[in-house]
């Protein structure tokens, strides 16, 4: 545009207000009608022709924060008032004054703010929020990464917390949401068409009494010398896949000392069933664990698929020529002492990546906790955790967090496809892993712990693409200022603003959670249950109070609890005594007949009025029965131990049959069942497999965890339907 070309040729850093509004108006943003005046007399003449009252503003590309400087005068109702106001503004603005802007005085009780800026990681970001003088204090804002669709824009509008002011409000009409959508989409289009624009601020975006939307002030900031950020090149997904399927591993830096990485990684790999060949390498030679130790990888007589390196950082560079000569193309670099320790470490890390790339070596790490692939019994991590094979792929930018998640997964029966502690991500980044999971047929769910991303735009695009076929469950570290500092020292990279990251997650369909156990709960749900088609829950409970609590939680998490149909009530009447709840939640009143839960569950699952069943308190009754047996044996010797043991065995069999029936119903009805156990013991799991079925029984410890899992699955379903 000529406005931009002229401003850039003059070396200006911003457009003046009139130029700014002309630009945004050309992209469909509604702006106030206005005229420019070259001097005070012109301002008076224009005001008289426009009709009082008017608004007069000082005009100049360098005049920012005009209100604070007294350079905006509103509701001027006479020629003399305009002349006096303009004279005062001219004196204040001085040499910065280019003229005056005259607008009709438009009143509106409601103000929004909209804008555009460029995030270092994710590029152009469009913003919408509550406007006026309290914009920064209230911070009721929402974001999306450009380009925006109309659907994105409507979601932004729906996310404003002060939603009530957008509806009919105090005698004023509801806001024209189509005009708001056009404003946001227009800002997005500007961002893509004009990379030389670094920022746009529209404040206020006034809502009139009739609901019209109008930009009465705007600022466009220029940055013609904005540098294109360089990002690590993408790694071939097939190359990443080969890292997790090595037929032979060389441990470079192997040690005989318990506690050293060179000993820990070797022992867990060799001791937990990995069937590939293992070679130990240490310049000292000799033997470790009755195995020969090679002084160099070049001395190994056979092919090596993966080198696990634990030597000090200073010695890693010297290994590259040896790996190249030996034909080793994959390196798992455990060693620390690189970017995470400061500038000198960053230089060393950069040089290492460059040399590895030149020699065709793919490098995971440095500063990584290791990898595992339970499907080939490969457990090569710093902690001795061995989750069972499954379909959930895990990447964690904190190795300790990752291995803790693996430990929980092992305990709860959640199967793992593969795990990597990604470390500093000097070469292979979180974006590369996401792309690799897209290609891997065995991965059904992706679980990520992320502190920062290398290439924000690619991360968004990869996750949005993968998220349409496989759910991505993510926890973000570094959301607070303290967390940000910790993330920087831990991974050598500063996290982006958490609100921007939240916007990325919404656009990409990422299921973002706030707590580490939520990662496991969602992974259990997505990998074990059919996706709900809607947000309507039938609740079956062993006690009334528990059902009430769960219904309250459903309301909090935007889950509907519909009323039962009369037909459904009649069916349940034939099973339960007359004093049952006759409503949803369905209280099965603690009946001891073990067929009742199965029969009621089947009725609810076949009900067209619900999309899922939340099942409270059926699993875990065997624990109470066992404790009852103990009390009886102590108090009443007339009961034989065999009879008492049989009580527990019957309930154990019932639980297995109950899980099998739930799984069968999920296959038939394609609805999930979110279970909550009455009690749990340390050996009890969250996920229960049934032979021959693609679904599994899932039983959480609390109603909150079950309801939250349901709500996040609904959220993901809505993303897919968008």
Could you walk me through the main structural features you see in this protein, from its secondary elements to its overall organization?
The chain starts with a helix and ends with a helix. Strands 13-14-12-11-15-16-17 form a seven-stranded mixed β-sheet, with helices on both faces. A seven-stranded mixed β-sheet has the order 19-18-21-20-22-23-24, sandwiched between helices. Strands 5, 6, 7, 8, 9 and 10 form a six-stranded antiparallel β-sheet that branches. It folds into four domains: 150 residues, 2-Layer Sandwich (D-amino Acid Aminotransferase, Chain A, domain 1); 73 residues, 2-Layer Sandwich (Dna Ligase, domain 1), CATH 3.30.1490; 291 residues, 3-Layer(aba) Sandwich (Rossmann fold); 193 residues, Rossmann fold. Helix content is 39%, strand content 20%. Helix 21 runs antiparallel to helix 22. By secondary structure, the chain is an alpha/beta fold. About 2% of the residues have low confidence.
């Amino acid at each position: 545009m000529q406005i931009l070309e002229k401003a850039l040729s003059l070396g200006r850093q911003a457009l003046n207000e009139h130029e700014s509004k002309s630009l945004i108006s050309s992209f469909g943003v509604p702006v106030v009608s206005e005229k420019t005046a070259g001097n005070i007399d012109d301002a008076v003449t224009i005001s008289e022709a426009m009709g009082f009252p008017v608004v007069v503003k000082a005009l100049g590309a360098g005049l920012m924060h005009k209100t604070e400087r007294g350079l905006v005068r509103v509701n001027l109702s006479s020629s003399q008032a305009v002349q006096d106001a303009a004279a005062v503004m001219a004196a204040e603005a001085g040499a910065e004054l280019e003229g005056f802007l005259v607008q009709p005085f438009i009143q509106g009780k409601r103000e929004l703010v909209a804008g555009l800026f460029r995030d270092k990681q994710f590029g152009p970001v469009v913003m919408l929020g509550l406007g006026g003088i309290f914009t920064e204090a209230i911070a009721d804002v929402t974001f999306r990464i450009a380009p925006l669709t109309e659907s994105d824009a409507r979601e932004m509008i729906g996310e404003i917390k002060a939603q009530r002011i957008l509806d009919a409000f105090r005698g004023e009409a509801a806001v024209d949401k189509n005009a708001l959508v056009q404003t946001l989409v227009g800002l997005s289009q500007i961002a893509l068409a004009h990379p030389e624009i670094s920022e746009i601020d529209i404040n206020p975006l006034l809502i009139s009494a009739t609901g019209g939307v109008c930009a009465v002030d705007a600022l466009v900031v220029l940055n013609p010398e904005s540098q294109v950020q360089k990002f690590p090149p993408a790694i071939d997904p097939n190359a990443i896949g080969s890292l997790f399927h090595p037929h032979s591993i060389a441990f470079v830096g192997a040690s005989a000392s318990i506690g050293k990485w060179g000993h820990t990684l070797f022992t867990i790999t060799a001791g937990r069933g990995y069937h590939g060949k293992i070679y130990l390498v240490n310049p000292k030679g000799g033997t470790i664990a009755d195995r020969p130790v090679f002084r160099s990888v070049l001395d190994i007589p056979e092919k090596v698929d993966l080198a696990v390196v634990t030597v000090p950082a200073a010695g890693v560079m010297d290994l590259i020529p040896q790996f190249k000569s030996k034909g080793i193309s994959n390196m798992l670099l455990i060693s620390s002492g690189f970017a995470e320790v400061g500038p000198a470490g960053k230089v060393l890390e950069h040089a290492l990546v460059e040399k590895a790339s030149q020699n065709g070596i793919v490098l995971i790490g440095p500063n990584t906790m290791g990898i595992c692939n339970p499907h080939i019994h490969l457990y090569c991590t710093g902690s001795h955790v061995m989750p069972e094979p499954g379909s959930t792929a895990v990447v964690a930018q904190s190795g300790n967090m990752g291995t803790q998640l693996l430990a929980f997964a092992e305990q709860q029966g959640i199967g793992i496809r593969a795990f990597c502690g990604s470390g500093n991500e000097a070469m292979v980044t979180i974006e590369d892993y996401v792309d690799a999971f897209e290609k891997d047929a065995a991965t059904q769910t992706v679980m990520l712990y992320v502190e920062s991303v290398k290439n924000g735009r690619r991360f968004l695009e990869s996750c949005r693409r993968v998220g349409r076929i496989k759910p991505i469950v993510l926890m973000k570290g570094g959301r607070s200022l303290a967390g940000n500092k910790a993330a920087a020292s831990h991974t050598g990279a500063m996290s982006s603003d958490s609100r921007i990251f939240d916007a990325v997650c919404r656009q990409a369909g990422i299921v973002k959670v706030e707590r580490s156990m939520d990662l496991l709960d969602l992974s259990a749900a997505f990998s074990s249950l059919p996706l709900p088609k809607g947000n309507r829950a039938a609740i079956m409970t062993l006690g009334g109070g528990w059902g009430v609590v769960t219904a309250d939680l459903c309301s909090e998490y935007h889950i509907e609890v519909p009323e039962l149909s009369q037909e459904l009530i009649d069916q349940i009447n034939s099973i339960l005594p007359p004093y049952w709840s006759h409503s949803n939640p369905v209280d099965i009143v603690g009946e001891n007949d073990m067929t009742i839960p199965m029969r009621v569950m089947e009725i609810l699952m076949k009900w067209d009025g619900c999309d899922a069943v939340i099942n409270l308190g059926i699993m875990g009754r065997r624990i109470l029965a066992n404790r009852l047996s103990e009390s009886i044996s102590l108090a009443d010797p007339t009961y034989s131990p065999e009879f008492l043991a049989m009580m527990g065995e019957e309930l154990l069999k019932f639980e297995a049959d109950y899980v099998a029936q739930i799984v069968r119903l999920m296959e038939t009805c394609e609805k999930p069942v979110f279970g909550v156990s009455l009690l749990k013991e340390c050996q009890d799991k969250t996920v229960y497999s049934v032979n021959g079925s693609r679904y599994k029984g899932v039983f959480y410890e609390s109603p909150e965890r079950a309801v939250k899992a349901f709500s996040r699955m609904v959220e993901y379903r809505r993303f897919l339907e968008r």
